[in-house]
Design a protein that fits this description.
about 325 residues; alpha/beta; 9 helices; about 35% helix; binds nicotinamide-adenine-dinucleotide; binds uridine-5'-diphosphate
Length: about 325
């Protein structure tokens, strides 16, 4: 692969830090841009001595000019707790941030990959979700700042492609987990692992029959890099990347119990508003055009993630 100058927005976050690491290992120059809302310097501290790595504190809602060949636009809080903390800012990050990054891509002729999400499918009626499904999203609910923000970000990407010929990619990321999730992140995998390690009851929202499909972070990063570097017809159309292994939250609690190696107790708490009932990616498109499929199953990925949290949770 040709070495590139690459901008990763949200690069100090959970997925972004793994992406920066991989891009550097492949011999690229990486600029990591982050406002440190949910990202941490500690996530990239081990990269700071690398002369091919630069860390820039910047908010994507403000324009910036950088000479780069590729842009991975990940900047946006991903956990419901964090994206609902300041919902107006979440919309601004998705709309103004994405416009700024698309404008930069247009100006410097960079290829840009937009981190979209399975949330564009909302509470899906089509199951598993294929890329041609338009989704079932509440436009005025508490998740809308994120779901609709990401949908309009996709619209902007498509319009910059059609109107300005920008070389674009859209990856629809399904629930991803692994090392460097924040212990207080609020997402289910980190919550359950931290609770299990502290000997607390695992908080199952609702009756725990809702499903999610969990992808280990190294698989996701692999799919992301493949999508960025694959060329051809229709590559600007969205691609699902996720692990089709689907689990109820009750099953996930049992898997986490096995991963920490001790029995866990659960408690049932109210289900948040608009919580999707089911989610599973159809990854036929990723298989066909990227030759990609996940390689790490849930027990293996959970064991690695537990190993990480054991070191940071006292
Ligand atoms: P994260 O919260 O760990 O990372 C997001 C990063 O973006 C953080 O470092 C944060 O500080 C930074 N950021 C937020 N707003 C910013 C702004 N205005 N300017 C600059 N930086 C900003 O989340 P993550 O799980 O690493 O998610 C990364 C991307 O992937 C997000 O765009 C998210 O929507 C998408 N995604 C993640 C998942 C998942 O399961 N983890 C699923 C679907 C989509
Ligand atoms: N969830 C849960 N307990 C928790 C956190 C989340 O049962 O402590 C549930 C949540 O209601 C949802 C699923 O786990 O049905 C995934 O939640 P998460 O916030 O990780 O991701 P998202 O809902 O955005 O897919």
């Amino acid at each position: 692969m040709t070495q590139n100058r690459i901008l990763v927005t949200g690069g100090a976050g959970f997925i972004g830090s793994h992406l920066c690491e991989r891009l550097l290992a492949e011999g690229n120059d990486v600029i990591c841009l982050d406002n440190f809302f949910t990202g941490r310097k500690a996530n990239v501290a081990h990269l700071l001595d690398n002369r091919h790595f630069e860390l820039v504190r910047h908010d994507v809602t403000e324009p910036i000019l950088l000479e780069v060949d590729q842009i991975y636009n990940l900047a946006c809080p991903a956990s419901p707790v964090h994206y609902q903390y300041n919902p107006v800012k979440t919309v601004k990050t998705n709309v103004m941030g994405t416009i700024n990054m698309l404008g930069l891509a247009k100006r410097v002729h960079a290829r840009i990959l937009q981190a979209s999400t399975s949330e564009v499918y909302g509470d899906p009626i089509v199951h598993p979700q294929t890329e041609d499904y338009w989704g079932n999203v509440n436009p005025i609910g508490i998740r809308s700042c994120y779901d609709e923000g990401k949908r309009v970000a996709e619209t902007l990407v498509m319009d910059y492609h059609r109107q300005n010929g920008v070389d674009t990619r859209i990856i629809r990321i399904f629930n991803t987990y692994g090392e460097r999730m924040l212990p207080d992140d609020g997402r289910v995998v980190s919550n359950f692992i931290v609770q299990a390690l502290l000997g607390e009851e695992l908080t199952i929202y609702g009756d725990g029959s809702q499903t999610r499909s969990f992808c280990y972070v190294s698989d996701l990063v692999d799919g992301m890099i493949r999508l960025m570097n694959t060329t051809g017809e229709d590559l600007h159309m969205p691609v699902n990347v996720g692990n089709p292994g689907e689990f109820t939250m009750r099953e996930l609690a049992e898997e986490v119990g096995r991963a920490v190696g001790r029995p866990v107790a659960v408690k049932f708490v109210p289900l948040p508003q608009d919580d999707p009932k089911q989610r599973q990616p159809n990854i036929d498109r990723a298989k066909a055009i990227l030759g990609w499929q996940p390689t790490i199953d849930l027990p293996t990925g959970l064991a690695r993630t537990v190993g990480y949290f054991e070191k940071i949770v006292k």
